[in-house]
Design brief:
The complex is a heterodimer of chains A (about 220) and B (about 150).
Chain A (H helix, E strand, L loop, with lengths): L4 E5 L3 H12 L3 E6 L2 H8 L8 E5 L5 H5 L7 E6 L4 H14 L5 E4 L6 H6 L3 E3 L1 H14 L14 E7 L9 E2 L9 E7 L5 E2 L6 E2 L4 E7 L3 H8 L1
Parallel strand pairs in A: 1-2, 1-4, 2-3, 4-5, 5-6
Antiparallel strand pairs in A: 7-12, 8-11, 9-10, 9-12
Chain B lengths: L1 H5 L3 E5 L3 H11 L3 E6 L16 E4 L5 H5 L8 E4 L4 H14 L5 E4 L6 H6 L3 E3 L1 H20 L1
Parallel strand pairs in B: 1-2, 1-4, 2-3, 4-5, 5-6
The chains are: A alpha/beta (about 220), B alpha/beta (about 150).
Chain lengths: ~220, ~150
C-alpha cells in the first residue's frame, strides 16, 4: 500500500483506533477536532508516529475547509463524530470544494443516510449492520456473517461434520447441494485448510464454510447434515 | 371576513425553545400553526398563553418522522432549533424530499451564515439582527445628541 494522506474529522475511540491502524500501515494522518479532549485522546500516538498531525479547529469553518491541502495523495476524508448533523455539515462543505475526493461519514441514524448519499459521500451505518447481524443470528445461529456485506442476501455458514451426517465420508462430487450453494473452504480437524475440489472427501470433524443464498440455507443443511 | 380568511397561512415551526415558542404564539393569533419539538416539556412555554395551534412531539433529528408531518402542505416552515448543524441538515433534507417547500432556517452563529447561503437556504440570524438594531439605535441616539 503506497503512502497516502488521510483526514479524520472528530470521533473519539473510533478515531484513535482508525488513526493508529492507518499510521501502522505507513500512512500520514491529519486529525481534526474542535474538542480539546478528543485531541488529547490521540495525543499519545504522536510519540511513536511522526506522520500524525493533530489540529484543533472548528471543522465547519468554511474558510479553513476551503484552504485544506488536498494536493497530496489523499486516501480518504473520514468524518466520524456521533452527531449526524455535524457530520453532514462537514461532508457537505468538503464536497463543495473537493469534488473528486473520497469522503466517508459515520451515519448514526440510518434515516439520515439518503442525504449523505445525495452528496456522493460513502456511509458507514453501524446500526444497520448490527440489525442485519442480529436478525441473521436469530434465524440461523451457526452463521459466520460478521464480515459479509451482503448479509441480507448471501449467507456464509460454518458447519461441523459429525459421524453419521449425510455428507460424512463422501466426495464433494457425490453430494447434491441445492442451487446457488457452494462449499468454499474445508478445514480439517488438525487445522489444515483448503478449497475443496470434486474429489475432496469430507471426513468426520471437518469444518465446512459454505456460501449460499439465504433462501437455500435450510436445504443446504439438510443436504449435508 | 372572507378576504381575511384567504390570508390565513399554515405555518410549521420546528423547535419550541424561546424563539420558536414566541414565534408560534404570535403567528397563532392570525394563522394556523403547528409546533414540533423533540421534548414535550418544551411546550410549557405555550401553555396558559392563549396558544391556539397544535403541538407535536417528534424527534427533530429524525427526518423521516418529520416528513410524515405533511410539511409540503405548509405555506412556510421555520427551522429554529438552537443547533446550527441540525438546522442545516434539516433544511437540506426537507428540501431534498419536498423541493418546492418554503422554509427559513435560524442561524445562531453569524459565522455559519455563509454555509446556509452557499446551499441557497433562506435564513435569519437573530444575533446579527439584534446587533444591527442596537447599532442603529446607537447611531440614532448619537445623531439626536448632536
Amino acid at each position: 500500500m503506497s503512502r497516502k494522506l488521510f483526514y479524520i474529522f472528530e470521533g473519539k475511540n473510533l478515531a484513535f483506533s482508525l488513526t493508529k491502524k492507518l499510521l501502522l500501515l505507513g500512512n500520514e494522518v491529519f486529525y481534526i477536532s474542535n474538542d480539546e479532549k478528543n485531541i488529547k485522546v490521540l495525543d499519545g500516538l504522536k510519540a511513536y508516529h511522526k506522520s500524525l498531525e493533530l489540529i484543533q479547529n472548528d471543522p465547519t469553518d468554511i474558510n479553513w475547509i476551503k484552504n485544506l491541502d488536498m494536493s497530496k495523495k489523499v486516501g480518504a476524508v473520514i468524518v466520524i463524530s456521533e452527531d449526524d448533523a455535524l457530520n453532514f455539515v462537514i461532508t457537505w462543505l468538503l464536497r463543495q470544494f473537493y469534488e473528486d475526493v473520497r469522503i466517508m461519514a459515520l451515519v448514526n441514524f440510518p434515516e439520515n443516510e439518503f442525504m449523505f448519499k445525495n452528496i456522493n459521500v460513502s456511509t458507514l451505518t453501524p446500526i444497520s449492520w448490527m440489525e442485519k447481524l442480529i436478525e441473521a443470528s436469530l434465524n440461523y445461529e451457526d452463521l459466520t456473517d460478521f464480515f459479509n456485506p451482503y448479509v441480507d442476501k448471501l449467507s456464509i455458514l460454518e458447519l461441523t461434520i459429525n459421524e453419521g451426517d449425510k455428507s460424512c465420508n463422501k466426495k464433494l462430487k457425490d453430494i447434491k447441494l441445492p442451487k446457488n450453494t457452494i462449499i468454499g473452504v474445508q478445514i480439517k480437524s488438525d487445522g489444515t485448510i483448503f478449497v475443496p475440489q470434486g474429489d475432496s472427501e469430507i471426513k468426520v470433524e471437518d469444518k465446512l464454510i459454505i456460501f449460499s443464498l439465504k433462501e437455500e440455507v435450510q436445504a443446504t443443511k439438510e443436504a449435508l447434515k | 371576513m372572507f378576504s381575511k380568511n384567504k390570508n390565513i397561512k399554515f405555518i410549521v415551526i420546528i423547535g419550541c425553545g424561546r424563539l420558536g415558542s414566541e414565534l408560534a404564539l404570535k403567528f397563532s393569533k392570525t394563522h394556523n400553526v403547528v409546533v414540533i419539538d423533540k421534548n414535550e416539556e418544551s411546550f410549557y412555554r405555550l401553555s396558559n398563553r392563549n396558544f391556539t395551534g397544535f403541538t407535536h412531539t417528534i424527534d427533530t433529528t429524525d427526518i423521516e418522522a418529520l416528513n410524515k408531518m405533511k410539511l409540503d402542505k405548509a405555506d412556510l416552515v421555520y427551522i429554529v432549533t438552537p443547533d446550527d448543524n441540525l438546522n442545516f441538515m434539516l433544511a437540506y433534507g426537507i428540501k431534498m424530499m419536498k423541493y418546492n417547500i418554503k422554509l427559513i432556517a435560524r442561524v445562531n452563529d453569524p459565522v455559519k451564515k455563509d454555509i446556509f447561503k452557499k446551499a441557497g437556504v433562506s435564513l435569519f440570524c437573530p444575533i446579527e439582527n439584534s446587533v444591527n438594531d442596537l447599532v442603529e439605535d446607537f447611531e440614532n441616539f448619537e445623531g439626536n445628541d448632536n
